[in-house]
Specification:
336 residues; Histone, subunit A; 2 domains; six-stranded parallel sheet; 9% strand; globular
Length: 336
């Protein structure tokens, strides 16, 4: 176990290993966490749901190799879980790691979770059930395109960042506008995500596009042959309907539509793979706009151990630099 010195702890170091889906960050993260005797704090907006294991690519007990994984299996599929709650839960785990002189180590691909964790959260109004009902009525009457057109009218900046089919985020942006009278983009600009409470090292893994797409398709083939269809069927049988945000995730929505007879098996697989490739592309677009990420190119046949060794090399440089630097009296925006 790598025990952090008192001087390094004063800097409040946090390491984040990020990248698009299927890039190999989970397996490499386990090797890194083992080397440092620490835990993995997952940053994945789908792995928070219990009972959604195969489809969210949760590491199995064997794949975790004894490394505790926190911030997974937090809620049932029909419970609300948002960025603010993720940040609160993650900060508790980070403070626990600091108290035990361990390195807080975050691994995941949900860009908004990572951004708000390391840079603070934009203070926006809390969800309002009545406004959400009104917005859902727009969807029912006019479809998602009608809902998106409303967002384009009141907050074109946010609309430009969202896909019209990203119903939950479009609804949230409209909800914020109706509650505050201010576009979500304006609130985010004022906040600017500059409340950095930690000394942060962001390490990104990237692979050539064709290699990444091949890994995505191979993983989907594995998921479908190892029980994802049965997992989805069981969730539906428990009453977790297709309207839930959790059930609109990649794979689950495609399988549910297939089970409902909307398209055949081949079309389900085609859409699942296509939408996952598009999702990975959006993840990369998001991360490339984030400042300060140290990108590590990964070769097609590079071993997990080799990737982990390079990640560890970056972490060691980071910790050595902190050791020789006088810490600030208090990090900007540090929670009290």
């Amino acid at each position: 176990m790598r025990v952090l010195s008192e001087n390094v702890r004063r800097h409040r170091p946090v390491v984040v290993l990020l990248g698009p889906t299927a890039v190999g960050k989970s397996a490499a993260g386990v090797q890194v966490a083992k080397r440092y005797g620490t835990e993995i704090l997952t940053a994945d907006s789908r792995q928070v749901y219990r009972g959604m294991d195969i489809g969210t690519d949760k590491p199995s007990i064997d794949e975790r190799h004894g490394v505790p994984h926190r911030l997974i299996d937090l809620v049932e599929p029909d419970e609300v879980f948002n960025t603010g709650r993720y940040r609160r839960e993650a900060l508790i785990e980070i403070e626990r790691a600091f108290g035990e002189a361990r390195l807080p180590f975050v691994v995941g691909g949900t860009g908004l979770y990572i951004r708000t964790l390391v840079r603070g959260i934009c203070e926006a109004p809390q969800a309002d059930p009545e406004i959400r009902k009104e917005l859902f009525r727009i969807v029912q009457a006019q479809g998602r395109d009608g809902l998106y057109a409303e967002l384009v009218r009141v907050d074109p900046v946010t609309a430009a960042k969202l896909h019209p089919n990203d119903e939950s985020k479009v609804i949230r942006a409209l909800e914020v506008y109706r509650l505050s009278g201010v576009p979500l983009s304006s609130l985010q600009t004022r906040h600017a995500f500059q409340d950095t409470a930690f000394a942060v090292l962001l390490i990104g893994l990237q692979r050539p596009k064709e290699c990444l797409y091949h890994r995505i398709e191979a993983r989907i083939d594995w998921q479908l042959s190892h029980g994802m269809i049965e997992e989805t069927r069981a969730l539906l049988a428990k009453g977790y309907g297709r309207e839930l945000g959790s059930m609109k995730g990649l794979g689950y929505r495609h399988i549910a539509a297939h089970l409902a007879g909307e398209y055949d098996d081949a079309e389900m697989v085609r859409r699942f793979k296509q939408d996952t490739r598009h999702f990975a592309k959006r993840q990369l677009t998001w991360f490339r706009k984030e400042p300060g990420i140290v990108w590590l190119p990964v070769e097609e046949h590079e071993s997990t151990e080799g990737i982990a060794d390079r990640v560890i090399g970056q972490i060691e440089q980071f910790l050595t630099a902190l050791e020789s630097t006088k810490p600030l009296a208090k990090a900007v925006g540090q929670d009290t």
